[in-house]
Amino acid sequence: MKITIPPPIVLDLNGQRTERSLPWLISSYLDDPIFGADVYKIESRVAIREAFSGKETGDVVDLRGSDWELLARAVRTPTVPYVPSVGEQLLPFIYAILRAE
């Protein structure tokens, strides 16, 4: 599955504005406990982290189908729910992942 890195977004976290990229968000998703459930998921975690390492706007990340499925699962239903006001700001990144081709 191919994910194109969208431009960074500016997150507003309680009045603190900070620019963030999709690779930054990926690192947060990789801390979801689903990636520690078994050795295969740990291997997926490593593969995803390596695939996004050093990527910038416009770059295309090509994930193996099973790695993408696991990442998409963490994005759709994270173990720790999104804070709604933050989740809506992350939608460009969420769509980039879930709409991969």
What this model shows, in words?
There is one protein chain. With 101 residues, the protein is an alpha+beta fold. α2 (39-52) packs across α3. The protein is built from five helices and four strands. The strands form two sheets. A two-stranded antiparallel ribbon has the order 1-4. A two-stranded antiparallel ribbon has the order 2-3. It has helices at 22-29, 39-52, 65-76, 84-89, 91-98, and strands at 2-4, 9-13, 16-20, 60-62.
- Taking all Cα atoms into account, the compactness measure Rg is 13 Å
Helix-strand makeup class: alpha+beta
Shape: globular
For the largest beta-sheet, the strand count, sense and barrel status come to:
2 strands, antiparallel
